[in-house]
Amino acid sequence: VAMGLSYQLKAYNVNSVVVIGHHDDRLERIKKVSSPNILINSHSESPEEVLKDRRFDIVIDAVGKVEIIKRGARFLKPGGKVCVYGVLAEGKSTIDLYELPNNVSVHIMSYPYREHRTHDTIVRMMLDGTLKASDFYDVVLPVERCAEAIRMLEQRKAFKVILTWD
């Protein structure tokens, strides 16, 4: 999700795209495919130390965790938004508003909400070669091997898997 969002934001010429994650293999893929301005591995670097006093208009939580929402809100400019794209787990979605900075908003933006409005843009990017679907997966298997595909994903031996039907 982070790679797709980063890619799309860069394609829309957003001024500054920062990606924070903690899986080196995924961060390397994101760096190669979408070239964010700043890439931070939160297991080896502190986002607060790397970003210092930088503030942003929007922070996107691609995971769906309250802790990320609260932490991300601290990087917002006054009037900024934390956009929650990730799906919050049932029973793990309570946010203590006193833990958020003043003058920020939390916007729940889980799809499917008007997802088709980006369809034409994505198709155009694929047709003109700007966007390559192959950047977003690394394994193709027949559907009969779906159990293997799931194991590969669980063991992080695959980034994404495409299942095919004959």
Mind explaining what this structure looks like?
By secondary structure, this protein is an alpha/beta fold. It has two domains: about 1-130, 3-Layer(aba) Sandwich (Rossmann fold); about 130-165, no CATH class. About 30% of the residues lie in helices and about 20% in strands. It is built from six helices and seven strands; from the N terminus they run αβαβαβαββαβαβ. The chain has helices at about 1-10, 25-35, 45-50, 65-75, 120-125, 145-155; strands at about 20, 40, 55-60, 75-85, 105-110, 140, 160-165. The strands form three sheets. The protein has a three-stranded parallel sheet with strand order 3-4-5, with helices on one face. Strands 1-2 form a two-stranded parallel ribbon. Strands 6-7 form a two-stranded parallel sheet. Helix 1 (about 1-10) runs parallel beside helix 2 (about 25-35).
Topology:
Blueprint: H1 2-11, E1 18-21, H2 24-34, E2 38-41, H3 47-51, E3 56-61, H4 66-73, E4 76-84, E5 105-108, H5 119-127, E6 139-142, H6 146-154, E7 161-164
Parallel strand pairs: 1-2, 3-4, 4-5, 6-7
Helix pairs in contact: 1-2
